[in-house]
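Lab meeting tomorrow. Look over both lines:
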Amino acid sequence: MSSNTDQSVISETLVTGALLTLRITVDDLSGPEIAALLTDHLTDMAAQSPAESMHALDLTALRRPEITFWSGWDGDTLAGCAALKQLDDEHAEIKSMRTAATHRRRGIAAMLLRHLIAEARHRGYRQLSLETGTVEFFAPAQKLYAAHGFEYCPPFGDYQLDPYCTFMTRTL
């Protein structure tokens, strides 16, 4: 989703965490910081899952009109990102959750996830789902999602059963 000045100001949210204040704003995916973070994300995902089981999106795929992408900033430093993909009028999917290496274990992912849940509710979605991996690398993500009310579920949307994929959902 491209971003203009009005859209960024309207979409900007301040979330205060225990260790920092995170400014979350709609991002047009044009900055070098976000490109580098997403390159790291795709590299890590490719190292953990076979290509046919990897569902992380690149910059081009994240620019689709059904996807809204946010970046989270700690001052002038990119701390993380997350996206919502509309599946239908009542169901959205979380995509591209990533915390920058410099900000891990500081609550960034939880702040971004709370933002996504609030935004999904605001948009009137009744269900929020996600796909993540099954190997140990993804255990912290699964724990985070479970702590925020997500439960394991069968594949949704266009996903198929896959030994490298875990599916989770929650009602809003």
Notes: Residues 146 and 168 are 8 Å apart (CA to CA). DSSP finds five helices and eight strands in the chain. The helical segments are 5-11, 32-48, 59-62, 108-122, 139-147. Residues 5-171 form a domain with the Aminopeptidase fold (CATH 3.40.630.30).
